[in-house]
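Bench log, entry 3. Co-assembly request; chain sequences pasted below exactly as received.
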Amino acid sequence: MALRILVVEDEMTIALMMEEMLTDLGHVVVELPMRLAPALAAAQTAAIDFAFLDINLDGVKSYPVAEVLRDRGIPFVFATGYGASGVDPAFADRRVLQKPFDRAELAAEIARLGQPPHTDHTPCSYRP
Amino acid sequence: MEFEAGAPLDRFSQIVAGQDWVASPLGPPEQWSPSLRTTAEILLRSQAQIILFWGPEFVAIYNAAYMPTIGDKHPRALGRPARENWAELWDDLEPLLEGVRRSGQAFSAKDRPFYLERHGYGETVYFDVSYSAVPEADGSVGGVLCIVSETTERVLAQRRLAESETRFRALVNASSDVIYRMGPDWSEMLALDGRGLLADTAAPRQGWLDTYILPGDQDMIRNATRDAIQAMVPFQLEHRVIQKDGSIGWTSSRAVPILDDAGQVIEWFGAASDVTVRRQASEHLQLVVHELNHRVKNSLAMVQAIAAQTFRNIADPEATHDAQARFAARLGALAQANDLLTGERWTGASLAAAIGLAIEPFRRDLDCFTLDGPEIQISSKTALALTLAFHELAANAVKYGALSDDRGRIAIAWSRYDGDDGPRVRLEWREADGPPVTLPQQRGFGSRLIERGLAGELNGTVELRFPPDGVRCLIDAPLPTEADD
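Structure output for the full assembly:
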């Protein structure tokens, strides 16, 4: 099933790679915002099924975007170089993808769709 | 010389009795005046240090108690004129004795210094002295009675104590440390010299913890002092303090117990140095290490992303070789951008510097690139993205565009203008005088990075055009405002 996915990632090389990986997996990256304002706009208006959310957007935290996604009931996971310890306690129940990650890890996150996010608290670990 | 019956005759008195007084200017005791005899008998019986200088020549008669104060002058000094045996200080002594003898007035002094040779060398010694006239029957002055008490040891001890006190004060003043004194059980602070860092405590008082220590730290301090008291070891602790201005600082504090003769603690004496700057530096270092860790991981993720896209869908060996060269060049651009930003301590960089860095490896001669535009400061991330994007533009120009022959040139120009939502920048990359441009058959990673990646990074628009007279790249983006930083 092709999903419409929002990727919020402030590092353009990584954003492009994620877009390519997700495209290879058969999904559509509908928006690729790299800063808070366009990310917030996309989260509020775009028709999306899933989102990957970088936490630090050029020094600005992306939690307002997370709040919008949560309120809309859109599943999402964080993707960050800081690891799970860097996540705001308000979103402690969300999964955190540790950079760098590969295509299989992206696919695994999407495959969890349908499971309520709070049923699985185990952090996903980086596989070397 | 005879003594009254029953009076104890010590050895020295026997010496006096056995002295060859015929050779003395005083003659034998039988011929002495009643006044001299009486005075001599009194001093010989006395336990005090006494010497009598008799007659105009100040002939010396002294007792056993006095003997140690003149060392090797005894026994030759006994019964001899003072000048013979006190030659080294005669200039000092004679006026004193002569003054008493002539005036009849007593002379006394405390800790009076005298230069004396009594053990084969000269030394300054100290005496409490009382010189008084001894009258003859006719009222004239027969001699000078000197009752003395040597105080040399006490004077030197006091002097050493004063010097020690002076050195201690100098030490305290030379140090910038806070100095404090605490009662035996630390419940009372006796005094604290805050050195401008902490509030001073001039008089003993309880409740000092509330003045100097945050409520949350007070138990820790109590425990540390209790341990020091129980084990009778120096108190030593690095802890936070409330400074005089109300701010929070750090001190490294150490106090030692001062004991009385019975081994009981009289007080604790301590010094505390201000280590606030070091603690802050240490905390800052923690932050830097944490941030560095993030950057390293981010860089690895970028390298992974660049590799994944550079080596995507490669079939033949020649293309692999080409891709490897591109990958190395892209990592080179990334490393260069890191150098630029490290030089600026990752606070940002200028637009011109970021572009200049990207094109530098492709600069064939001085004229092939021109850069023209105002100084614009951009964030570290934007600088990194611009360097990577312009690296792709330049690499493409060398391979397919204006720099693929030796006549082409590239003009990079930008200007600032006011948009609806604030200041913006418009930038154009314009290739000219190269071979005719043909539309590329497929768009690679470089094109995506420029058009989609850079556009997202700048939150603006980036457009690549391929007119026959030269490739163009048009960028339009908002300029960062203070609020974005």
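The first strand of chain B starts at residue 49 and ends at 54. Residues 1-9 of chain B have pLDDT under 50 and may be disordered.
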